[in-house]
Structure formats: structure tokens, C-alpha cells
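Q: Hand in one record:
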Amino acid sequence: MRRLFLATTFIFAGAAAAMADDIIKMKTDKSVIQALDALETAIGNAGATVFARVDHAAGAEKVGTPIPPNQVLIFGNPALGTPAMQIDPRAGLFLPLKVQAYEDADGQVWLIYEDPKETMDEFDAVENSPIIEKMRGALAKLTAAAAQ
């Protein structure tokens, strides 16, 4: 029984570590609002479109369960998304892209997003196409600009 418990523990620990690798996390000294405002500006300057801004903290407040600041920006650029959907139309399920800004329990604000290579891993032709590296580069540049 002890071996089964240890094996299960190692499997879950490995799965948790693997999931953590799928999420790119960047620290910022800005507030959640400032970071996403800066991200929105960077997105506009890059010629992409912001489709929505979701304020999770405002939603939580409405139901009487407050959480620290937490927002998601949903955005895209047809120059990046369209080629992925030409390769496999199901890629549209994971587009547009999203970046979350949240404040942790220590008051630190983070920008996070899922690595597009991991997001599209169900679609081999998309995952292994050059467009994924372009998406990765765009997300890295945009979040770095927003975090500064």
C-alpha cells in the first residue's frame, strides 16, 4: 500500500510540474490594472486587436466572495491566428490568445499565459509549424513590454 501511495504521489507531482511548464509567468511591479493597460497599449502598437477584458475580481465581488485583483485580456492578430487555422481549423478553439494579470497572496502581481506550443499540442501540424514560434515570440515581447 505504501508503494502505491508513493507511486501515486510521484505521478501527481510530475503532472503538476509538467502543467507548471505550460504556463509562462512574468513578475511585474505594476498593479494588475496598470499591467493590463500597458499590455493593451503594446497590443495596439503591434497591430493586434483586443477583443475583451475580463475582470474576475469584479465578478467575485458581485457574488460576495472577494479575491485580489485578477483580470484577463483576450486579443488576437489575424496574421498569426489565420495561418494556424488554415493548417487545422480546430486551432480556432484556442484562439484568440489570452494573458492574465493577477495579484498573489503576497501582493505580487504576475502576468501569465499558456505556451502556445502546449495549447496547440493536440494539433501536431500546428504545434510543429513556424507560426507557433511567432506566437511565442509575440506573447513574450508583449508581456515583457507590459511588465516594465
